[in-house]
From TrEMBL:
Homotrimer. SUPFAM superfamilies: Trimeric LpxA-like enzymes. Catalyzes the N-acylation of UDP-3-O-acylglucosamine using 3-hydroxyacyl-ACP as the acyl donor. Is involved in the biosynthesis of lipid A, a phosphorylated glycolipid that anchors the lipopolysaccharide to the outer membrane of the cell. Belongs to the transferase hexapeptide repeat family. LpxD subfamily. One of its GO terms (molecular function) is N-acyltransferase activity. Residues 19-86 form the UDP-3-O-[3-hydroxymyristoyl] glucosamine N-acyltransferase non-repeat region domain. GO terms for biological process: lipid A biosynthetic process. This is UDP-3-O-acylglucosamine N-acyltransferase. It catalyses: a UDP-3-O-[(3R)-3-hydroxyacyl]-alpha-D-glucosamine + a (3R)-hydroxyacyl-[ACP] = a UDP-2-N,3-O-bis[(3R)-3-hydroxyacyl]-alpha-D-glucosamine + holo-[ACP] + H(+). It comes from Arcobacter caeni.
Amino acid sequence: MTLKEIANFIGIDCQNEKEITGLNTLLDSNENQLTFLENKKYINDLKNTKAAAVLVTHENVNEVPDGVVALVCDQPYLNLAKISKLFAPNVVEIYGAEPLIGSETTIMPNVYVGKNSVIGNNCTIMAGAFIGDNVKIGNNTIIYPNVTVYRDCTIGNDCIIHAGTVIGSDGFGFANTKDGKYIKIYQNGNVTIGNDVEIGANTAIDRAVFKSTIIEDGVRLDNLVHIAHNCKIGRGSILVGQVGLAGSTILNAYVVMGGQSATAGHLEIAPFTTIAARGGVTKSITEPKKSWAGFPLFEHKQWLKLQAKISNLLK
């Protein structure tokens, strides 16, 4: 779509006819993409954006770099939500190439494989699985019954995906109007899963808003784990049952999270960190190879001492 058409869609006057191919973050946008600034803590990212245009408030319009078109509005995030619908792919592709299935791959009855999808060699896809359009699955991967893989997602070699898991469902993203109505932010990214990954039953991994939710090589996810949009799980990490990660959480390599532990969004956890069961991470952890517990979070040894003191109060 042209920038003029997009601006007119949200009621902004703009005569620029530049073609816009998609939406992206401030720093990741290129000269054919549209971005936005809502939170002032990202003002330095605005100054360095390479986007074609940016949704921005009157307050921050003077920070828009030369050559970037400013689409001035009161609620950039809300307008981004409205525009995201314009770039959402088809739910189901009617036209396209028939799926390519590798040698020695077993596809059981009642499996759907979408257009333009590719499944590698020596895979097993069990009954009831749904493999959407433009999905790529590597070699030697096992998909158990009733797994759903939404469109555009990728799964590597030697993976095991257990029954009932959903890969690529929409991230939980909404913008509010002034009267409280929720406007859906269409999740136009995907999920990328590396090699040698095992995912337990009934786990949900949400697709990204713009780019990819990433599960790196060697990760192990237990049953009933939730990975929100735009998260990145570093290689070799282990997430035990009922762990939940809020959006844009980054786990570096070999992080271990115990059962029912969770993170707030937009934070990063250092390599080789251990979070004990029911630990709540609300701030980034920068020092590697430490163990943490509790909510609010304490170093594990301190948390144990605190529990002992509380126990003594009851005597």
